[in-house]
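hiii, so i know i said id send this last week but things got crazy w the move. better late than never?? heres the sequnce for the chain we talked about at the cafe, plus the structure i predicted for it. fair warning i was half asleep when i ran it
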Amino acid sequence: MTESTESKHTISQICIVVRDLERSMKEYSERLGWGPWKVFEYKAPFLHHTHLRGEDAEFTMIAAETMVGDLGFELIQPTGGASIYQEFLDEHGEGVQHIAVMKHDASEAEELVEELGAPKVMGGRTADSIEFYYLDARPELGVVIESGSGHAIDIEPTRVVDHRKG
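okay and structure toks below
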């Protein structure tokens, strides 16, 4: 095993896009013991200033987040409108749709955008303080990277679900 080194662009979260959030939370909890899940309903007014490929766009989703060690793990189920989540489901089925390299400062997030040189393909704002966006780094890195000024897991969820046994 090799020694780990610190990076200024640490992975903060891995996201799986799913068709059925409730089923997926239950499966991950029962099979891997992950949870509890903070569930968020992303729709107006909580979700706002949304865009897709440079154009204003309305999309909605429900998501569940939990911590697995020091890493955030997220499940997203698209529920309406055109989004990169729905495109991924249509093209690939359920699976890893993006990894997050989230910052807690807008200038640090913009620094990542400049360093990657990848286009922002989708984004928006949640609550009053969090901006998020997705960078299409697939040509160079083989993955979509989410960044911005914070994760929803840091704010009050719509509800909490715990399917873990014991």
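btw The chain has four helices and eleven strands. thought thatd interest u
miss u guys!!
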